[in-house]
Amino acid sequence: MMAIVAGALGCSSKGTKPAEEGTANAVSIEPKMAFNTDSAYAYIKQQVSFGPRVPGTTGHSRCADWIVGELKRHNADTVIEQKSEVTAYTGDRLPINNIMARYNVASPRRVLLLAHWDTRPWADQDDNEENRHRPIDGANDGGSGVGVLLELARNFGKVRPDIGVDLLFVDAEDYGRAEGFSNNNETWCLGTQYWTENMPYGDGALPEYAVCLDMVGGIDAVFHREFISNVKARSVVDKVWKIASQSGYGAKFNNDVGGSIVDDHLFINNAGIPAIVIVESTNPQTRSFPPTWHTMSDNMQNIDKTSLKAVGQTVTNLIYQEK
User: Fold this and answer.
1) Do 116 and 170 form a contact (C-beta atoms < 8 A)?
2) Buried b (16+ CB within 10 A) or exposed e, 189-213
3) What predicted TM-score, i.e. pTM, was given to this entire model?
4) CA dihedral sign, ordered 116, 311, 211, 224
5) For residues 63 and 224, what is the distance between their CA atoms, to the nearest angstrom?
6) Which of 60, 160, 212, 312 could lock 35 by a disulfide, CB 3.0 to 4.6 Å apart?
7) What angle do CA 240, 242, 244 make, to 5 degrees?
8) How far apart, in whole angstroms, are the C-alpha atoms of residue 303 and residue 42?
9) In total, how many domains does the chain have?
10) Pair 252, 222: CB distance under 8 Å
11) Contacts of 61 (CB under 8 A, 6+ apart)
């Protein structure tokens, strides 16, 4: 997972301030489809079983094949693999594979849901210095967002939403330079930067909005309104947080503004698609990302099914209420 625009390590905050009131609503949503948390958890566990998904490794290529296979199994109208090579700030040439599944391709209205599926090559935030050059499992950072998207795909394959939905799994998000975050934005999200330069949309038919999922499975995670999302795509944040409240997850979706993050949504916004990120950015222990961030502790033991359920059911309800 990503860096922050301003502040200390990673996803610290640019200052928090209360969001405007009125996003909650007393009306409850009756889910059209239930989000199966056990299934999402199993999807995360399967990713971790491949080992670190660092571009150019065997685990990375095996995971890509598996994601493509799952999307086809879940009856996507089409699955696109966007393969290329990008250069990291280290000078390393990285083979990347952005994977996109499309549902209801002919629909005039579309929504984009995305998560990165690669993992950090180094546990550079680990307390043990000996671990700081080892790759991480990335159960939460990478794995959790992918697990939620794949469970959404399973539901879409059974009951098509009324609108078009694109599920985008972006690569090489987490190979960025940690030092001096605000001066190194372009070193992160390399797969998304490539995708925005080569979007598979013609005639200006862009999705109406995008929701990025990152680190959505942390223990006792609470999701604040990410700063850039709240500035660039406030109406989308309002919509998602309102649906979370109506779905019974208002306590997990805090209406205060959290950290200012360099993540895939930043580049999606720059490409003309209003985009937000659901991410744990204001952890009470670290005041930024969860304590497992970029450490060897980002493993299955630190995945919380209640966090996955809150995010997964909220996004499920978001999509199925669109007409």
Assistant:
1) yes
2) bbbbbbbbeebeeeeeebbebbbbb
3) 0.94
4) negative
5) 30
6) 312
7) 70
8) 11
9) 1
10) yes
11) none
- The 8-class DSSP code of residue 59 comes to H
Q: How many DSSP H helices and E strands does the chain contain?
A: 8, 10
Identify the burial level of 160 via C-beta atoms within 10 angstroms of its C-beta, where 0-12 means exposed, 13-18 middle and 19 or more buried.
middle
* Rounded Cα–Cα distance for residues 140 and 26 (Å): 32
Type of residue at 235: S
- Tokens 């089409």 sit on residue: 78
Supply the Cα-derived Rg of the chain in whole angstroms.
18
**pLDDT for 3:** 52
CATH number of the structural domain spanning residue 301 = 3.40.630.10
Residue with token string 């098509």: 160
DSSP H/E element including 322 = none
| pLDDT at residue 20, as a whole number | 46
Helices assigned H by DSSP within 142-232: 143-158, 190-197, 227-232
Range of the domain at 87: 3-321
State pLDDT tens for residues 1-50.
555 544 333 333 334 444 444 445 558 999 999 999 999 999 999 999 99
Buried-exposed string 15-53: b where 16+ CB fall within 10 A, e elsewhere: ebeebeeebeeeeebeeebebbbeebbebbebbbebbbb
Distance CA 214, CA 2 (A): 9
**CA torsion, ordered 245, 248, 252, 255, to nearest 10 deg:** 20
CA separation, residue 136 to residues 56, 95, 307 (Å): 15, 19, 21
pLDDT 10s digits, 165-196: 999 999 999 999 988 656 799 999 999 999 99
